[in-house]
Structures are given as structure tokens and as C-alpha cells.
Specification:
six-stranded mixed beta sheet; 50 helices; about 5% strand; alpha/beta; Serine Threonine Protein Phosphatase 5, Tetratricopeptide repeat; elongated; about 1150 residues
Length: about 1150
């Protein structure tokens, strides 16, 4: 006995409604009463054999109506065959025709399609001989259904049309319903949805007129499938739920099973895997109860689909193979095609490309053989994906275009979207990002229109990948986070894993290495659980890149070699090329240059063979680095130019920038500084655009600045080599506190980053800023020739900044100076309680860029020996540090204002404590201010006049914190009270006539709600030792024995998101001027207040004594209230402490630093 089964999407494509399992008997004996009586009359006129026939037909009917179990059908078929033999013995052609038709129908219900076809053809032949139009209509219907179930859809459709033509000459409405229903379901399978809708709607009308609930149910089910195919999910759910409800009302198990499967398909496509799984399980249970192999196979395949979507691919394949065995036992080409296609797709997702190719080619052949256009389209699409993985891009594009063509032809919008997605992925691999984005966005729009959450998640992820390649990391991360959210909501494990991995890639590109490691570790289990070897390989490659940044080259090499082995086994050419490139660069770093060249050339060769220009670009760039190390500069430049051509084709900002940077390195090494500057100018412009596209994401910009810093330093060196001193300062200024300047101009309403890049400081605006600042400005910048080498500029009045020289050996002197001042040796009354540090955004160094700078060390000296500054032989570290940093540009004694623009760890220097050649502290001689950059002063000077014209004050003192659990260290800390901070806040509040926030009242919420109306903000509280973040009291509803840190710690992010319009923010806390030192500057709480809108910030460099701070603040406000500049008030307060009996040590008065503008308050009492 042979059986067959159609595809999962075709659950309602049976010849007759499932509640009519004995439908022929109903038609021949009940539904078609006149024919039944005629048949009975013929039989009764015969001998005893004819009575036996009648008896057998009656028993067969009883079996049919007693239940839908397969055994009932088997027994009924056996009785009908006995009846047929008796009819043949009596030579009763009429009875013989009717019984053949009856057998054809029962065998259809048993999924014995070949045998059913044989009896249907006999019925058709006999009915033609007898001139029985009613039987002819039924016979055509049975033959059509058998052909359709066997996959010959076009032939099946022709027979159904003949059936409708035949029945139109009669008045048999039930048979007319069957014909219309079968025409509708077969048209659905052929992708002819307009005709399918027309026929099924007509069938529903006929069924409704007949009042036949079972037929109404089937027609609704058929329409549900059409709407599902058209991806009109709400309409599909409506009709399928009607089908299920009516099937339950008439107790038709088979019909219920089909309705459950159809509903499951809709929910699966919408991404509701949980609901779909439950529906398919119920369908499988019913199919086994009634012994229906046809539906059982379909349910197994559907459950496999859910496993596949969830990433449990091996489980999915087990189900698909069970489905295939059933399909083969039924000899159904369409069901076999469906099962084989599912297996092929699953194999492709596991990276088993050759196995996948073989199965998908079989799918294509079967779909063409049976005339199933929809399946043929998908076969082309799936095969195209396999060829893409194998690197056969030309063939892949051809197949995807065929898929797109067929999808449009049959009007399948979802398939059209998928074809666009597949084409987009190919163009992405080829580096054609513009075409890739167009196709993926088209697919995204369709998925959103169709409410397909799984498809939407994948589309968003693909769009994110394109933004990533273009260097738009902000948009990329937004997309990845959206795809991650969707994946979690629908429990799509592969998408969740891919989203994590992509976020990790973005963090890696931004230099956020610790976050990248954390994210990659989250992604790996998803790949392993899914058994997706390609994804496992990608994860290994990603981890290898992180180990590179960590300097663990042994682990890095192990990861990339495993990645290479996996890709070679899977014939995953793109991954193989990438792995070769990574292994080549490991050998480059380990000085195995011959091996490095071999692997880089392999990367280029493989990438070229598959047309993958991103791989060719990377390989050429890597060869450029290798030949540079070999001092073969012409070869290095040749490959770097090739890489640039590829990057320009891809229109990737970041990659074009990298190519220009490498060319800048090569030309600078060959002393062609003008050419080097040309490329470095282009590089820094491209990098600035990459940074702009991060928009408001300050944490990303800060980290990216670390990655890009070497290009600005190299550019500065090359300009200094040409004695273009002012240009060199302007280049340095472009990168200095650029993210902070971005924040400030947005807060001031001066610029929207979406309108283009913020205007950088130029020659004219530089002079304007210098002039408005007044005083003497000393500007420092790391030279790139070593971590302790800095170059200096000096500017005063309206004159252009003058290059002074290069200093080194200051870092060790700084440590000596801090030790000399006994900064870390405070008694117990120091306010600092060592609040555990929160997460750092980046603790790992960018070793790759460091290596580039290291290559140039010694080759590029920024100034001649006469300009190099060395310390004089003096005893104190504070004196020596002064000599190193100021001896060539000693602050003018006649100039009161000394403005310092430091770089890197120079921000840690207590400038006021440095001693000049007369052994006088700078703080005694000058009003000292520190600027993160000159650019931020340009922003402050241009801010609207009324922006800082507030009148109020917010004063905070001694917040009652309690015990806090700090997540980073998983440690509880008890935060003690600060008596002098409380007193300090009350005294200052009296000056302003305001009520201070003290103790339990000093919550974050109370503080933040009043910020935008305050001209002055003063906080006397505990500060974090790393970032200066401040501890506040918890809100009343959150107070408990052990507090959560988010309820008490005022973070940098919270400050940056607040509206601050204060002229001055005084952070009378420990470490408030400190933070993580990055290329951007000092990333701490003081910077956060400047970025939020504050004009000036007074902060501290280290843990300050509680009583000394109180005394300092008394003196500071005493001078501030009479209209003195903030810098003068700081100098007077510093002098008072320095001359006091108890606080004369620099550790008490030197940590206070004024950052930003020099503000004044005309009348504090009026405020």
C-alpha cells in the first residue's frame, strides 16, 4: 500500500471535507438520495449476491460514521473491495462504478493515493460508459485529488475543473461544494491566490446555503490557508479559528487536527513559538489517535520547524527525517519535497553545506516535476544561500533572482521579502552595502506589514550589520538591541545568539573590550546549543580578536586555528578567508613575517575567488603592515592603496579611515610628511564622521576616541616635522574632549549632530578663544613617541600659540610628588570611605594602535634636541615636575591667570602645588584654571546669554546613605556621616537664603528636580574613588537595611541626562575631579556636569580631609560673595589653608581644581 502527504502549509487541501470521511457513501447512499435509491434498486433486483453487496455497503458506512480511526477506514476498504468483486461477478456496471468511486474516496482518506487514483480512474471510465454525469463529476474529483496529493498539481487542477463542469449539469449542491473546495485548495498550492480565494469563497456560500457545518468549517479552513499564504495573518487566524470551532462542534477529529496545524503555522510565522508548539503537539496527538499518517507526518515536520526556529536544529532534523519516512511510505512527491527541503535548510544552518546542497537540488527537481511554483521559488532561494556560503556568489545571485521572480509571479509577499533579504546578504558579502541595505530594508518593511516578528528580528539584525560595516556603530547597536529584544520575546535562540555576537562586534570596534568579552561569552552557548558550526566558528574568531586586544596571543592563535579548521570542514569560504587573515596578523605580531605573508595572501586569494571584497581589502591592508615592518615601503604603500580602493567601493567610513591611516604611517616612515598629512587629514575627517554618527551616545564616542587617538597623534607629529606648529595644535584639538564638546553644543542648542559635523576649531576661532580667555595658556599633548612624551604650546593675549618643545620623564616625577605630599596617608577623619568603583567602560589598552605608534618611536621626534625639556637638579619632586613642564615656558609673573590644557595623566597633576625656581607654589602666584580643551570654551562663549542666567541654588550636605550593596564588587559598604559636610552645607545655604538638602532629605530625586533653576550647585558628600560619582540618601520608599546602589549613587549618565544651567557646580567631595583617563580626557563626574550644561566646576583630585574642606569652602565663598572671580576665590582659599597652622600641607589645599570658565556672582544674597 502506498501513501502520500502534502506540505505543511496545505493542511486543508483534501479532496473532501475531513468530517466527510465516508462522504462517497453519504453521497451515493444518503447525500445523493436519488442515486442511492437507484443503486439500492439495482442491487435488490439481483440475486443473493446483490443482497450481500448491500449488506457490505451498509457495514462500510457504519464503520465510516463510527469514527475516524485509520483501522475503520481499512475495514471499510476491505468490505468495499468484497462488494466490488460481487458486483463484477454480476456484471453490474452501475454498481461497479459507484463502488470504485466509493473505494477511491476511502483510500484518499487513508492517504493511499496511488491506489485511490487507480479506482478513481476505473470509476471515471465506467461512469462515462454508463453516461452517469453525477458519477463522472465525483470520479473526476477523486482523480484530481489523487494527482494533487501525489504532487501533480496542474493535472489535479484540470480534473477538478472537469468535475465542476460535469456537476454543473446536475442539481447536486453538495458535490458542487466539493468541486469548488478542491479547486480552491489546489489553486492555493499552485500559488494562484486570486482564483483560490474566488473558489473557496464560492464554496463557503454553497456550504452556508446547505447549512452544513462540517463543509462551512472546511471552507473557512481553506480560506485561512490562502490568507496565511498571502501573509494576511489576522484574516487567516479568523478563518482558521472558525474552522476549529465548527470542527469541534461536529466532533470531527481529522478536521480539528488540520485546523490546529493551520493555526500553528500562522503563529509560527508571527514568531509565537510557544503557541505554535502547543498547537502542533495537539495536532500530533489527534493524528495518532485517529491513525492518520498523513497529518502525523505534517505535525512532525511542523514541530521540527519550531525546534529549528528555537535553535534546536538537531532535534528539528530528527523530526524532519521522521516526516520524510512517512512521506516516502506514502509515495508523495510534494510531501517528500517538503521534508527534504526542511532537512536541507537545517543542514545549511548547521554549516553542512554539501549535504544541504544535495538535498536542496532534490527539492528543486521535485518542485519542478510536480509543478509547484511556490516550492520551486523557495528551492531556488535556499540553494542560493548554500552557494553563497560556498562562495559561489554569481550562482547565488542568479538563484535569488529566480526566487524573487517566482515570488512576484505568484503574489507571495513574504517570499518576495525573503528573496530580497537573501539578495541583500549576497550584496553585503560582496561589499555592495548600498544594494544590500536597499534589499534588507524592503524585507524589513514587508515583515513589519505582515507582523512577522521572527522575520522582523532578522531583518533588523541585517540592517544593523550594514550600519556596522559603514562605521555607523550607534545605528548598528540600536538595530542589534532591537533584534535581541525581539528574539527574547519570541524565544528565538539563534537570533538571540547572533544579536549578542553582533553587539560584541560593535563593542570591539568601539574599543569597549571588556563589554565585548562579556557579550561574546553570552553568545557562545547559543551557538553550541544550536549545533551551528558556522556560528561557533564566528564566535571563536570574535574571541580571538578580543584575546588580541588583551595581548594573549597564544589563546588568540588557538581560537583562529579552530575557526579555520571548522570553516575548511564546512567549505565556508568567507569564514576560511577571515581565519587566514587573523592567523596572518598573529604571526605578524609574533614576528613570523613569512607565515604572516602566506596567510594574508591566502585571505586575498580565497576572497578574490568568491568575489568578497571586504576580505580582499583586509588582506591587502594586512600585507601593507607586514611589508612596512620589513621596511619594504613601496610594497607596503602598493597594498595599502589597493585596500583603499576596496574600502571606497564598500563606502565604509571606518575602513577608508583605516586605509588612509596606514598610508599615513608608511609615508611618515619614508619621511614624506606632506603625503602623510594628506592621508591623515582624510583619515581624521572620516573618523570624525564615524564619531558624529554615534550622536548622543557619549560612552561609545569616548571609547571610539581611544581607538582613533593614534591617527591624531601621528598627524600632529607629521605637522610638527614640517614646523606647522599652529596646524599641529588644531589637529590635536579636534580629538581633545570632542565628545564633551558635542554634548555641550547640543545642551546649549547650538548644534544638532544630525545636521552634520560640529564646526571644529580653526585658526580664526582659536585666536578668538585665546583672546577671550586672557592670561597665559599652556597646552600639552602626548607626542605619540612614548607614553611620557608631551609637546607644549604657549599662548598669551592675542598672539598665536607658540610651540615650546617636548618634555618627558614627568610621569615618575608625578608619582614621587604625590608621595612627597603624602596624598594617600590621611587619618580616619578623611571623608573618603573608598566607595567601590562601578564598571569601567574600558580597562584594556588598544594594543594594535600602540604597536603602530611603537613602530614609529625613534623615527619621528617632534622637535630638535634643543627643544627637549629635562629636569634640573633640584631636591623636591614638585620642583622637578615644575622644571620639566614649565622651564621652557615659565608662567609670567606679571600674568595672574594661568590656564592649563592638559592631556592624559597630566590631569592628575596638582598644578597649584608645583614650585617655581624661587621655590614658590604656582597657586600662590596665579589664578589657575584647567580646561579639558579649547573647543569647549568656544562652546561656552557661544552659548545663549540667558542660558546661565539663573537665580536659585541647590545645596546638598551629608546625605544619610546607610549600607549599600555595590554590584561590581558584590560587597556591602557602610557609608558614614560627615559632620563637617553638614555644617558646610548649612553655612553656604544661609548665604543664598535657601534650605539645604541634608541627611535623609538629600535624595537624588530631590536634587535632580531643582537643577535646571540653579545658578549654583554645591554638594558636600561622599565621592567614588575612581569616577567621583556621588552617594545620596535613598528615597523613603526604598530605604532598607541594605540599599541597592542605583537608589543612592548619582551616576555620570544621570547627570549628563539632567538639565544643568548653573554657572558653577562645586563638588565638595573626594575624587570629584578624577575619572578614567582616556584619549577623550578625564571621564568622571566633573566632566558629566560640564556636559550637562554647567559653565564651571570646582572639584578635587583626591580624598580630602573633612575639616580642611569645610575651611576651604568658607574662605572660597567669602571671596566669591563679594564678586571675585571663581579662580581668585580658589587662590585666596588655597592661600588661607597654606598659611594656616593645621592645613598648610599641599595635600589639604592642592587638590582643589577649577575646570571650565572663570565665573563671577555679583550678589549672592539676591540669588
Amino acid at each position: 500500500m502506498q501513501r502520500n502527504q502534502p506540505k505543511r502549509e496545505c493542511n486543508t487541501r483534501s479532496v473532501l471535507p475531513n468530517n466527510q470521511s465516508a462522504d462517497f457513501l453519504n453521497n451515493a447512499m444518503e447525500g445523493n438520495e436519488s442515486d442511492d435509491r437507484n443503486s439500492q434498486r439495482h442491487l435488490s433486483e439481483t440475486s443473493e449476491r446483490q443482497d450481500q453487496i448491500l449488506n457490505l455497503l451498509s457495514k462500510a458506512r457504519e464503520l465510516q460514521v463510527s469514527g475516524e480511526h485509520f483501522k475503520n477506514y481499512e475495514q471499510a476498504a476491505e468490505m468495499l473491495k468484497q462488494a466490488l468483486r460481487l458486483a463484477q461477478e454480476t456484471s453490474n456496471k452501475d454498481s461497479e462504478a459507484e463502488i470504485c468511486g466509493n473505494l477511491a474516496e476511502v483510500l484518499l482518506a487513508m492517504d493511499c493515493f496511488v491506489e485511490s487514483l487507480s479506482y478513481g480512474q476505473k470509476c471515471l471510465s465506467l461512469s462515462n460508459e454508463a453516461g452517469r454525469k453525477d458519477l463522472e463529476a465525483l470520479a473526476n474529483s477523486y482523480v484530481g485529488s489523487a494527482y494533487s496529493k501525489l504532487g501533480d498539481l496542474t493535472i489535479g487542477l484540470e480534473f477538478h475543473k472537469k468535475s465542476l463542469d460535469a456537476i454543473s449539469t446536475t442539481d447536486h449542491q453538495k458535490q458542487r461544494w466539493k468541486c469548488l473546495f478542491n479547486l480552491g485548495t489546489t489553486s492555493t498550492e499552485l500559488g494562484d491566490y486570486p482564483n483560490a480565494t474566488k473558489f473557496l469563497t464560492e464554496s463557503l456560500t454553497v456550504a452556508t446555503d446547505l447549512g452544513d457545518k462540517a463543509a462551512i468549517a472546511e471552507s473557512n479552513g481553506g480560506l485561512g490557508v490562502v490568507y496565511y499564504k498571502k501573509r494576511q495573518y489576522p484574516e487567516s487566524i479568523f478563518h482558521n479559528e472558525k474552522h476549529l470551532t465548527l470542527a469541534r462542534e461536529v466532533s470531527q477529529k481529522k478536521s480539528q487536527a488540520i485546523a490546529l496545524g493551520n493555526l500553528g503555522n500562522v503563529h509560527l510565522s508571527k514568531g509565537d513559538y510557544i503557541k505554535a508548539f502547543a498547537l502542533y503537539q495537539e495536532q500530533l496527538k489527534i493524528s495518532k489517535e485517529i491513525g492518520n499518517k498523513f497529518i502525523e507526518g505534517r505535525a512532525l515536520g511542523a514541530l521540527g520547524d519550531v525546534y529549528h526556529c528555537r535553535g534546536e536544529t538537531r532535534k528539528a532534523i530528527v523530526n524532519y527525517e521522521a516526516y520524510l519516512r512517512i512521506a516516502e511510505s506514502l509515495n508523495s512527491k510534494s510531501a517528500q519535497a517538503n521534508a527534504i527541503g526542511k532537512i536541507g535548510r537545517a543542514q545549511h544552518s548547521l554549516g553542512e553545506n554539501r549535504k544541504s546542497q544535495k538535498n536542496l537540488e532534490t527539492l528543486l527537481e521535485l518542485s519542478q516535476e510536480i509543478g509547484d511554483k511556490a516550492t520551486e521559488g523557495f528551492a531556488y532561494g535556499f540553494l542560493g544561500n548554500t552557494h553563497r556560503s560556498l562562495g559561489n556568489f554569481e550562482k547565488a545571485i542568479f538563484m535569488q533572482k529566480k526566487f524573487l521572480e517566482i515570488s512576484k509571479l505568484i503574489g507571495d509577499k513574504a517570499a518576495e521579502g525573503l528573496a530580497n533579504a537573501y539578495l541583500g546578504s549576497i550584496y553585503y558579502s560582496l561589499g555592495d552595502l548600498e544594494n544590500a541595505l536597499k534589499h534588507h530594508q524592503f524585507n524589513l518593511a514587508i515583515n513589519r506589514e505582515l507582523e512577522n516578528k521572527g522575520g522582523e528580528g532578522r531583518s533588523v539584525e541585517k540592517v544593523g550589520n550594514i550600519h556596522f560595516e559603514r562605521g555607523n556603530y550607534n545605528e548598528a547597536i540600536k538595530c542589534y538591541q532591537e533584534s535581541l529584544e525581539i528574539a527574547r520575546s519570541i524565544r528565538d535562540k539563534p537570533l538571540e545568539g547572533a544579536s549578542y555576537a553582533n553587539i560584541g562586534n560593535a563593542y570591539l570596534a568601539l574599543g569597549m573590550y571588556l563589554q565585548a568579552v562579556d557579550i561574546y561569552e553570552k553568545a557562545v552557548p547559543f551557538a553550541e546549543a544550536a549545533g551551528d558550526q558556522r556560528m561557533v566558528g564566528q564566535m571563536l574568531g570574535n574571541l580571538g580578536n578580543v584575546y588580541n586586544r588583551m595581548g594573549d596571543h597564544e589563546k588568540e592563535l588557538e581560537c583562529h586555528q579552530r575557526h579555520l579548521s571548522l570553516c575548511e570542514a564546512l567549505e565556508e569560504k568567507q569564514g576560511e578567508a577571515t581565519a587566514h587573515g587573523n592567523i596572518g596578523m598573529i604571526n605578524y605580531r609574533m614576528e613570523n613575517l613569512e607565515e604572516a605573508i602566506h596567510h594574508s595572501e591566502k585571505q586575498i586569494s580565497i576572497s578574490n575567488s568568491i568575489g568578497e571584497i571586504a576580505g580582499e581589502m583586509t588582506g591587502c591592508l594586512n600585507l601593507g603592515k607586514i611589508y612596512l615592518k620589513l621596511d619594504e615601503l613601496s610594497k607596503a604603500i602598493e597594498f595599502q592603496k589597493k585596500a583603499l580602493c576596496f574600502a571606497e567601493k564598500m563606502k565604509s567610513l571606518d575602513k577608508m579611515g583605516s586605509c588612509h591611516y596606514d598610508l599615513g604611517v608608511s609615508y611618515s616612515k619614508s619621511k614624506e610628511f606632506e603625503m602623510a598629512c594628506d592621508h591623515l587629514e582624510k583619515c581624521t575627517q572620516l573618523y570624525a564622521e564615524v564619531r558624529r554618527l554615534l550622536f548622543e551616545k557619549d560612552v561609545y564616542k569616548v571609547s571610539l576616541s581611544d581607538v582613533q587617538a593614534s591617527s591624531y597623534r601621528l598627524y600632529t607629529q607629521c605637522l610638527l616635522q614640517q614646523e606647522k606648529h599652529e596646524e599641529a595644535l588644531l589637529v590635536t584639538e579636534r580629538a581633545r574632549s570632542a565628545a564633551l564638546a558635542d554634548m555641550m553644543v547640543v545642551k546649549y542648542g547650538l548644534h544638532d549632530p544630525k545636521d552634520g559635523q560640529r564646526e571644529a576649531l580653526n585658526e580664526g576661532s582659536l585666536r578668538e578663544v585665546v583672546s577671550r580667555l586672557g592670561g597665559q595658556i599652556i597646552y600639552y599633548a602626548l607626542s605619540g613617541a612614548g607614553k611620557e612624551n608631551v609637546v607644549l604650546w604657549n599662548s598669551q593675549g592675542n598672539s598665536a600659540p607658540q610651540f615650546v618643545g617636548e618634555a618627558n620623564n614627568w610621569k615618575s616625577l608625578l608619582d614621587e610628588a604625590l608621595s612627597e605630599m603624602k596624598v594617600n596617608e590621611h587619618p580616619a577623619n578623611c571623608e573618603d570611605r573608598s566607595l567601590p568603583s562601578r564598571e569601567n567602560t574600558r580597562l584594556l589598552e588598544d594594543r594594535e594602535n600602540e604597536e603602530e605608534e611603537e613602530k614609529l618611536k625613534g623615527d619621528l621626534l617632534c622637535c630638535p634636541p634643543s627643544k627637549r625639556i629635562t629636569p634640573k637638579d633640584r631636591s623636591s619632586a614638585l620642583e622637578k615636575l615644575h622644571d620639566v613642564l614649565f622651564s621652557c615656558t615659565s608662567p609670567d609673573q606679571a600674568t595672574s591667570d594661568l590656564i592649563i590644557v592638559p592631556d592624559a595623566e597630566l590631569h592628575r597633576i596638582p598644578w597649584a602645588a608645583l614650585r617655581n625656581e624661587n621655590n614658590e607654589s604656582l597657586g600662590a602666584q596665579h589664578r589657575i584654571r584647567v580646561l579639558p580643551s579649547l573647543t569647549i570654551m568656544k562652546a561656552i562663549f557661544k552659548c545663549p546669554p540667558d542660558f546661565h542666567d539663573q537665580k536659585g541654588a541647590v545645596i546638598v550636605g551629608d546625605p544619610d546613605v546607610g549600607t549599600v550593596l555595590f554590584k561590581a564588587k558584590k560587597k556591602e559598604e557602610s557609608i558614614a556621616g560627615l559632620a563637617h559636610a553638614n555644617e558646610e552645607a548649612q553655612e553656604i545655604a544661609r548665604l543664598f537664603g535657601v534650605e539645604p538638602l541634608l541627611g535623609e532629605e538629600a535624595t537624588k530625586a530631590r536634587f535632580l528636580e531643582n537643577l535646571d533653576t540653579a545658578a549654583l550647585v554645591h554638594i558636600a558628600a561622599h565621592g567614588n574613588s575612581v569616577t567621583g560619582e556621588i552617594a545620596f540618601a535613598p528615597p523613603p520608599e526604598k530605604r532598607k537595611p541594605v540599599l541597592d546602589e542605583e537608589d543612592v549613587i548619582l551616576t555620570m549618565a544621570e547627570v549628563q541626562n539632567a538639565k544643568v544651567r548653573a554657572k558653577l557646580v562645586v563638588l565638595s567631595c573626594c575624587h570629584s575631579a578624577t575619572g578614567n583617563i582616556r584619549a577623550e580626557g578625564v571621564i568622571g563626574i566633573a566632566r558629566a556636569f560640564l556636559g550637562a550644561g554647567a559653565r564651571s566646576v570646582l572639584a578635587t583630585l583626591w580624598a580630602v580631609n573633612d575639616e580642611a574642606t569645610l575651611e576651604f569652602m568658607r574662605k572660597f565663598y567669602q571671596h566669591l560673595k563679594v564678586g571675585k572671580k571663581a579662580s581668585e576665590a580658589v587662590r585666596q582659599a588655597t592661600t588661607a589653608l597654606r598659611l594656616s597652622q593645621d592645613f598648610q600641607s599641599p595635600s589639604h589645599w592642592a587638590p582643589f581644581v577649577l575646570i571650565g570658565d572663570d565665573v563671577t556672582f555679583e550678589n549672592l544674597e539676591q540669588m
